[in-house]
TrEMBL record:
Keywords: Membrane, Transmembrane, Transmembrane helix
Protein name stated in the entry: DUF3995 domain-containing protein
Segments crossing the lipid bilayer: 12-29, 50-70, 120-137
Length: 140
């Protein structure tokens, strides 16, 4: 249990969370009601939406597999490990910013499920960005 509290343990947990987040993208359209929402758009718009969704899910999985499988290597202080930590920190830090700028309160306020999802994602992106940022700062 204490191993999970180490920086390596936190990196692995973040990796697992990102892999799960990527897998959730497989059912996200149904959870969000996108088939009905996209039905009135052109075929091109629907296909682009689903293609982007697939690649976002894939990026989550791949970005999660790095710390899940290679946490010690990321923390070793090599140029590659440091570059990967910097990239993950910037990427997930920007995702945290987007949670507040791209998704304004009018999209979720007043809807319990969307409010809960917004708060959960704020906590998730805060934790993910903080772990990568701390790991970046702590590497030799």
């Amino acid at each position: 249990m204490t191993a999970l509290l180490t920086l390596e343990g936190q990196l692995r947990l973040v990796g697992l969370a990102l892999v799960v987040m990527g897998a959730v993208h497989a059912v996200l359209p149904r959870l969000m009601g996108w088939p009905a929402d996209l039905a009135s758009t052109t075929l091109l718009t629907r296909q682009v939406s689903y293609a982007h969704l697939f690649f976002i899910g894939l990026v989550c999985v791949l970005f999660g597999l790095l710390p899940l499988a290679l946490a010690p290597e990321l923390l070793a202080g090599t140029r590659l490990g440091t570059a990967l930590l910097a990239g993950e920190t910037v990427f997930w830090g920007l995702r945290w910013v987007f949670q507040f700028t791209v998704f304004p309160a009018r999209l979720w306020r007043g809807n319990r499920m969307r409010t809960a999802a917004h708060m959960a994602l704020v906590l998730l992106w805060t934790w993910v960005a903080a772990v990568f940022g701390y790991a970046l700062a702590a590497t030799p």
